[in-house]
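> @MW can you paste both from yesterday?
MW: sure, first one:
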Amino acid sequence: MTEPKNDNSQAPLDVEKIPEDLSVEMRKIAHDLSNALEIIIQTSYLLGTAELKAPAADWLRMLDDGVQKAMELNLTLRNYIKDHTSS
């Protein structure tokens, strides 16, 4: 018999839950962070369509790297909140 695949998007039942009032505030902040990141992502994308020369092209690559890292961290935060709240 095979064991079910471990889905990292769902926390174990015994994980400590974030208090409801705190989780509501954390969700609001995470949502606002997502909105701010969306502006940065779109700006980065639009700058990428321009033919930039050095050093601006290098700065755009640095921006893109930062954007990717920020998106990964934001997703980690949102998943943590989701996994540690009741609703």
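MW: second:
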Amino acid sequence: MTPEKIQRLADLAEQLSDALMTAAICADEIRTVAQAELDGRSSERGRSQNVRHNYAPPERPLVDNSTFSVCWAGRTCCLRRTILFRLAQRLARHPNQYVTPDQLLRDVWDGGVKSPDTIRSAVRHLRHRLAHAGMEDLAAAIHGSGGCYGLILDGRV
């Protein structure tokens, strides 16, 4: 098998993995919202007046390759087919882990850009777009340290 075919298979495996994770996140969110709705209707019938809706955002944002958008806690930010989308996609792939500048340049910019300033600028713009879409907590979860960046959702930095 040629190196190109091997790389193509690796890329397809990564895409399939992302799609399956996205489906699992969607199913979990649907289940949570449906259960909250059912619990709410039960309380309306007088069964329970103290129903708590345990709606929590998924463990990582939903990055939708078909609409080039990021979904988080019931909000959506359309990033279109841009570097910002690719950056969000890369950071969300492995939340709570930092990504080196070399990895970001390779995965997001296909190795075509060499400047750390470019990464900093893109991160700043991504945070701004997410915050503007009402995802301030997700924007604040993008942390940088020593040129590395990560989507730190568990609160540890």
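> thanks! Residues 75 and 134 are 7 Å apart (CA to CA).
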